[in-house]
TrEMBL record:
<dbReference type="InterPro" id="IPR004561">
    <property type="entry name" value="IsoChor_synthase"/>
</dbReference>
<dbReference type="Pfam" id="PF00425">
    <property type="entry name" value="Chorismate_bind"/>
</dbReference>
<dbReference type="InterPro" id="IPR015890">
    <property type="entry name" value="Chorismate_C"/>
</dbReference>
<keyword id="KW-0413">Isomerase</keyword>
<comment type="similarity">
    <text>Belongs to the isochorismate synthase family.</text>
</comment>
<dbReference type="InterPro" id="IPR005801">
    <property type="entry name" value="ADC_synthase"/>
</dbReference>
<dbReference type="GO" id="GO:0008909">
    <property type="term" value="F:isochorismate synthase activity"/>
</dbReference>
<feature type="domain" description="Chorismate-utilising enzyme C-terminal">
    <location>
        <begin position="198"/>
        <end position="450"/>
    </location>
</feature>
<protein>
    <recommendedName>
        <fullName>isochorismate synthase</fullName>
        <ecNumber>5.4.4.2</ecNumber>
    </recommendedName>
</protein>
<dbReference type="InterPro" id="IPR019999">
    <property type="entry name" value="Anth_synth_I-like"/>
</dbReference>
Length: 463
């Protein structure tokens, strides 16, 4: 990492200030420097241990790791124009940005599952929607590693002082690489609160009856577990275990106000790369087998299940209908395939296309979310049932989480297989799709299987 390149920061900030004075508006300055420092997970572990609020993101296909530190700007949609308005503001901000180096600006964040429902415990620190442009963003992809400095430059900012501040922050980051990482204390589960199996199954039964009566076609009923551990949980240690346990899922960790929402999700909501749109419908679940033969049999059973095919098809249709007005081309694979995870397998249908001129990633997120994979169908009726029957705040669980850049690219996942941790306390969430042929007991087992991915990663004394 060459600190001599810091001279660039001062001249870029000066240029941005000049522009800000001319336009009377703050201007985003973006400076990217090649990074040869520590790997982002190693840095994330150190930042987490030091209690620094940061953001971690990792997708394995394509390989991309983002580590955001600090906050240059927080982008929040306003109630009237929603994500579409935010999309326009982001585009304008980037059109006017002063950019130096190989990379453009990037914002990372998420949305609540149900933005109309009231924010409740334990989600008070997680707003309805927010995308953060970090002060410093470490980005590692197959193309190389960069440290991106973002600053919203105002008319009266002093470029010299400000560039020194960034220089100091980068030096602190570089020196934190040297910090010795002591292993977090072993934590064991001491208490667990959550809805009992019988009570959950009674709710599922009532919803299945509503589906059979024709009031809706599908609803996703979730469970919330509140666990207490013997020692404070380390978000970075949990994320490392999730990463080791599953080589394919997308990892995320968002720290806010002393809490951390993290997970390893198999579900991508939508990715836009140079105008190409990629998504999948993911719904229909069965466990993995005890051996190859058993696994194969279970996979075939899932593919042949009318109930799972129906549950899955509702998701394919809803995604198609949401995307059609926003895409120029749309291709849907004719049949679902198995999406295999360490503990379970899902049905997955690939959906691809090309984004129409004038639309952006956030427009796609707005149109798609929440899909019937996490809410149900029709959406309005499903959300109404969820509000009445679940009786807890899903917060950011099952909501979209991801990033957008200044070049029109973006990637959002559905924040599943996740937990909200705060010291020794942990909140876990998992749900499953109910249709007319569902059996409550079986569905309860499915939510337990989904919860077990995170439960395994939370305990530190496991080998
Ligand atoms: C709702 C969850 O998962 C969703 C529901 C699925 C199902 O019902 O088969 C499968 C994958 C996800 O789309 C969850 O993991 O909490």
């Amino acid at each position: 990492m060459k600190m001599t390149r810091m001279g660039d920061l001062e001249s870029v900030f000066a240029k941005a200030r000049k522009q800000a004075r001319q336009s009377g508006q703050p201007v985003l300055a973006v400076v990217s420097l090649p990074w040869s420092g520590a790997d982002p997970m190693a840095l994330y572990q150190r930042l987490d241990a030091a209690g620094v609020d940061c953001l971690y993101w990792e997708t394995r296909e394509p390989q991309r790791v983002l580590l955001g530190i600090g906050q240059a700007l927080e982008c929040v949609p306003d109630p009237d124009s929603g994500l579409t308005g935010l999309q326009h503001r982001w585009r304008r901000l980037n059109d006017d940005a002063v950019v130096e180096g190989a990379e453009v600006a990037r914002a990372i964040g998420g949305l609540r599952f149900d933005r109309t429902a009231n924010q409740q415990w334990p989600w008070q620190c997680f707003p309805a929607a927010c995308l953060t442009v970090p002060r410093l963003l470490l980005e590692c992809t197959a193309r190389g590693s960069y440290l991106i400095c973002h600053k919203l430059v105002r008319q009266d900012d002093d470029p010299v002082t400000e560039s020194h501040r960034y220089r100091r922050d980068i030096e602190t980051l570089l020196s934190s690489e040297q910090a010795v990482l002591s292993s977090p204390p072993a934590s064991t589960l001491v208490r667990e609160q959550g809805i009992g199996a019988r009570q959950w199954q009674a709710k599922a039964e009532a919803l299945i009856d509503a589906i059979r009566a024709g009031r809706l076609s599908k609803v996703v009923l979730a469970r919330h577990l509140h666990q207490t551990y013997s020692a404070p949980l380390s978000a970075a240690a949990v994320l490392c275990r999730l990463r080791d346990a599953d080589p394919c899922s997308h990892l995320f960790a968002v720290h806010r106000g002393g809490l951390c929402f993290l997970g390893a999700t198999p579900e991508r909501l939508v990715r836009v790369h140079h105008g190409r749109v990629e998504t999948h419908a993911l719904a229909g679940t069965i466990r993995r087998g005890d051996n190859a033969e058993d696994d194969q049999r279970l996979g075939e059973q899932l593919l042949a299940s009318d109930k799972d095919q129906h549950e899955h098809e509702l998701v394919v249709q809803a995604i198609r209908d949401a995307l059609r007005p926003l895409l120029d081309e749309l291709t849907i694979s004719p049949e679902p395939v198995l999406h295999r995870l360490p503990l379970m397998q899902h049905l997955s249908t690939r959906i691809e296309g090309r984004i129409a001129a004038g639309s952006g990633v956030l427009d796609l997120v707005q149109a798609m979310q929440p899909t019937p994979a996490v809410a149900g169908y029709p959406r309005h009726e499903a959300l109404a049932c969820i509000r009445v029957h679940e009786r807890f705040d899903r917060g950011w669980y099952a909501g979209p989480l991801g990033w957008i850049d200044g070049a029109g690219n973006g990637d959002f996942v559905v924040a599943l297989r996740s937990a909200l941790i705060s010291g020794k306390e942990c909140h876990l969430f998992a749900g499953c799709g109910l249709v007319g042929d569902s059996e409550p007991e079986h569905e309860y087992g499915e939510t337990s299987l989904k919860l077990s991915c995170m439960c395994r990663a939370l305990v530190s004394d496991r080998t």
